[in-house]
Each structure stands twice: as C-alpha cells, then as structure tokens.
Design goal:
Blueprint (H helix, E strand, L loop, with lengths): L5 H5 L4 E10 L2 E11 L4 E5 L6 H8 L7 E6 L2 E3 L4 H6 L2 E4 L11 H8 L11 H14 L15 H13 L5 E5 L7 H16 L3 E5 L3 H7 L2 E6 L2 E8 L5 H9 L21 E10 L8 E9 L2 E6 L6 H9 L6 E6 L2 E2 L5 H6 L2 E4 L3 H5 L6 H5 L1 H8 L8 H14 L16 H12 L6 E5 L7 H16 L3 E5 L3 H7 L2 E6 L2 E7 L4 H8 L5
Parallel strand pairs: 3-8, 3-9, 6-7, 7-8, 13-18, 13-19, 16-17, 17-18
Antiparallel strand pairs: 1-2, 1-4, 4-5, 9-10, 11-12, 11-14, 14-15, 19-20
Helix pairs in contact: 4-5, 4-6, 15-16
C-alpha cells in the first residue's frame, strides 16, 4: 500500500462536510458531523449498526438532505439532497441494498443504471454485451450477460452493483458495506481493485464492519457512534485495534447479554436433525445435493464450510422445506419430516436464519411488529378459533426487539427502513425464540458490527448449552473454528470431509477446494 504524497495530503479535501445533522422522528441519526477526506486515499468508516454510517454516506451521495450542515466536493458546495449534483461532481455510490432492476439482463441493467458518459440511447444486444464484458469479467462476475438479474445468486448481484458504480468516471467512490455478501476471495479481489483505483487518484470511502478488513485496505479510519463522530479521520498506523474497538462499542452495556434457553440439567444428547442419503435437483445457479448424510444433536454446533456455491444454499433450502427432497429422508426430533412443509417444520422446532435477510428473511414493506411476530402468528393460525390481539403482538414484538437492541422509531414502521444490521437483529429476535429445537443459521453474522457479531456468537453458544442443536453455515472460517463442535466441508454438492476440533486450517482449506477428493 503506497503512502500518499505530502502535496496530496495538503490539497483541497476531496469531500468536506460540516455540522451535518439528520433526524428521523425521535431518532437522531447524525449529530453535528464534520469530516474531511483527503484526495487519492482509502478511508474507512466504521461503527455499530444504527450508528449513522449509511445515513452519512447517503448525505454525501445526495440521497438524503440533512436538516443542518453543508457538503463540499473538491471544494465546490453541493446542493443538499441532489444526487445528480453529486454525480456530476464525480461521486459514485455502491448502495447497501441492490438497485439493479430484477427483470433486466445483466447487460441491460448495467447500461440503464451506470453513470457512463458519452453513451448512446440505442444499442444492439451484441454491442451491449461487448460493452460490458470486460467490466463484469474483471469483477469475477458471470460471463453470460443475457442472464436476468433476478436469476442470479445474491453474491453475484452484489458484485454487479460494484461494477455499476465503478463504470463511470467517478473520482470519489462511496461503498456502503460492499463486503457483506462477498466471499473472502471476492473481498480480496475487490480490495485489490480499490487500491488500484486509489493509485490512479480515486478517493474512496468504504463502510466496513470487520477490523481485519479495515486494516487490510484503509489508510485512515473514522468512527461513528450513536450519530456522533467519536473518532475523526485517523491514520491506521496511529490507532490500535483496541482503540478502534473501544471507540466503536463505547461503554459496556448490560443489554449485551446473550439470549438462550439457559443451562439444562440434562447432559444426554439426542439427535434433533438427521439427513440420510438426501439428494435434490440443482437450480440454474446453485448445485443440487448428492447423497447428503448429516446429523445435528442436542447441545452441539455443527459447522458447514465450503466455497460458496457448492450446495450450501440447496442444503439450507432442503432442510427448511423450501426445496423438495428428491431422494433420501429427513427427520426432526426423531419424526419423519421429509414431506412436511415449512410451517410444519417450524412448529416442530426448526428455525432459520436465511442467507439473504432482505429477500428471504423479512417482508420489507410490512411493519416491524408483523415481521417479528410471524412465528407466533403461524402457531395461532393453526388453532381452530384463533384470537389475535394486535396490541399484545405489538408489545411482544417491541420487547423482543428491545432485548436484541434493534434500533427503530416505532413498531409500525416498515422493515425496509432499518439498516442491514438491524434487519438481521430483527430476524434473530424472531427465530431465537421459545420453542426452538434446531437452528439453521446461514451467515448469521454477515454484515453485523463488532459487538453484534460477538452477541450473536454468544447467543449461539448459549442455545447449544441450553440443549438446542445448531447447524451453522458460514464463509468465515474463523467463525466456524471458534463455534463448531464438529465441522463438515461441502464441495460439489457433497460432504467431502469431516473434522473434529482442534481444526487444521490447511486440511480444511484443501477440502474446500477439492484437494482431498
């Protein structure tokens, strides 16, 4: 990583904001935030979920007009809340939520939404494909540009969002949690490209959650906490990981306690989930399953490792009842559930934290209380004469969300108004509820901040210690090694290796890449 020149450091800030203040009802999202970003450098912005990171990025990008303050780009004052003015000044943004239209092909969607200059209004399809082939290939995306966005896996869609933003002549690039849905290899590739852009003079502000990612790519770092800038742009060489962690988390809170069933007097293990010879058909962008045999017992966490795209999604879908099991059988608590639907499996104690929280875990337009109460409503619906008290459900939802420290204004606000991390907290508050026997957790800490990640991991341990079984699917090997009592590796739709702690990172890595076949 090359150091910036003294002249670059002394130049007019690429971005300067002064006294920014943003409120959403009673929630103060930003409080008197002032920030200077030097040109030609990579700046990291970190903080807990709800700290104001996304709000600040939206203000700088012209998507959110603050109640107070001003923004200058390359010394020029920009009208507040004016996206076009920010783009004209050379600022592009990669959003936390996808913006590419689902019904368009890859090439069509990129051409429609990218900020290229000098484009034409009409193109032959072959010209569009040729126009975008290099950009997509450079990001490691799909080579079939005729594929529709809605048919792509979430990781590829995220990569294409980055392609879209980088396609223009932007001199300032804002990325809001771009690594949340990427594999480690894709993250490394992204960081290499960002450093190359930096070397070409592009100023980059990247919102991140993981300290090791901050250390890997950033030259300076700023910390937001509860809407306030508690650490201004500081050189990475002058701030320790402990100092960053203290600035991010702030004083310890009793609300950080984990949630679980509590210790169980029973030490014996029972098989709670068992798959025997399970196979299912592949989809357009996900491998199927081939004779999967696994079990999850009470009081254990079973980890699933593997390079993403090797059947993990099919495994989760088959267990949850979202994809049919073609061959083999599945048992929950000793009872056959092979043909049971998702609702019946939930009533038997199966809970799910899905891969994509926004499209699979919540209804974005529904109110918070309804999203949080979904499991209780399923149970009530199966009664012959269901009696529903909306006041009771709203109160219970508020209590659960407060326990999980979801930052919200009112239980009636739509779920889409929450930040990504708070959406994950909402899902966890719903799924880790009484009645849980087996939890299938797919990337449960992806996109969460530091304290929330630790909170979730402690909660998974307490679930295990209280007698539950956990199937943990994660692309984070450190997380799997830390939490798993046993570790299985998937490759090509099969389980190709099984490990017991302590784990050999090299052996696990070899299994993940197929070297142990």
């Amino acid at each position: 990583m090359t150091a910036p020149s003294e002249s670059a450091s002394a130049a007019t800030p690429a971005v300067r904001c002064r006294s920014l203040g943003v409120s959403f009802g009673a929630v103060q999202a930003l409080r008197d935030v002032s920030l200077d970003l030097s040109p030609g450098r990579i700046h990291a912005l970190v903080g807990q979920n709800g700290a104001g990171k996304t709000t600040l990025a939206k203000v700088l990008g012209g998507l959110q007009a603050p109640q107070t303050g001003e923004v200058r780009i390359a010394g020029r004052k920009i009208p507040l809340g004016d996206v076009r003015a920010a783009q004209t000044a050379g600022l592009a943004m990669v959003h936390q939520h996808f913006s590419l239209p689902p019904s368009f092909t890859v090439a069509e969607a990129l051409e429609l939404t990218a900020a290229r200059k000098g484009g034409r209004s009409l193109y032959r399809r072959s010209e569009l494909h040729q126009r975008w082939q290099d950009d997509v290939a450079e990001m490691g995306g799909p080579t079939v540009l005729a594929t529709r966005i809605r048919d792509l896996p979430v990781e590829t869609r995220q990569s294409l969002e980055i392609v879209r933003a980088l396609a223009g002549d932007a001199r300032i690039l804002l990325l809001d949690e771009p690594t949340a849905l990427l594999t480690p290899a894709a993250i490394d590739q992204l960081f290499e490209r960002l450093m190359s852009l930096r070397d070409d003079g592009v100023t980059i502000l990247i919102v991140l959650h993981k300290l090791r990612e901050v250390a890997a790519v950033a030259e300076s770092v700023s910390v937001l906490r509860d809407g306030e800038l508690v650490l201004g742009p500081s050189e990475m060489s002058e701030v320790s990981e402990a100092q960053l962690s203290d600035a991010i988390v702030g004083p310890a809170s009793s609300a950080d306690r984990a949630i679980g069933k509590g210790p169980s007097a029973e030490a014996a293990q029972d098989t709670l989930l068992e798959l025997v010879g399970v196979s299912c058909r592949e989809s357009a962008f996900e491998l199927g399953l081939n004779e999967i045999n696994l079990r999850v017992e009470s009081r254990e966490i079973v980890g699933i490792a593997g390079v993403e795209g090797n059947g993990q999604r099919s495994l989760v879908s088959a267990i949850a009842g979202l994809a049919p099991i073609a061959d083999g059988s599945m048992r929950l608590g000793g009872v056959d559930a092979t043909r049971a639907g998702p609702a019946r499996r939930r009533l038997r104690g199966l809970r799910l934290v899905p891969f994509d929280r926004n499209s699979e875990g919540i209804s974005r337009s529904a109110p918070l209380w309804l999203n949080q109460s979904a499991l209780r409503l399923i149970g009530r619906h199966r009664r012959r004469f269901p009696l529903i008290s909306l006041r009771q459900y709203k109160r219970q939802a508020a209590e659960a969300m407060d326990l999980w420290r979801v930052r919200y204004d009112a239980v009636g606000q739509p779920a889409e108004s929450l930040s990504g991390g708070n959406v994950q907290r909402l899902i966890l508050s719903r799924e880790l509820a009484p009645g849980l026997e087996v939890l299938v957790a797919a990337q449960p800490t992806r996109g969460l901040d530091f304290s929330a990640t630790n909170f979730v991991r402690r909660s998974l341990r307490e679930l295990r210690d209280g007698g539950a079984g956990v199937l943990l699917v994660s692309s984070d090997l450190d997380e799997l090694f830390e939490l798993s009592d046993r570790l299985l590796v998937m490759y090509g739709g099969r389980i190709v290796a099984r490990f017991q702690a302590p784990y050999d990172r090299q052996a696990v890595g070899d299994a993940m890449t197929g070297a142990l076949r």
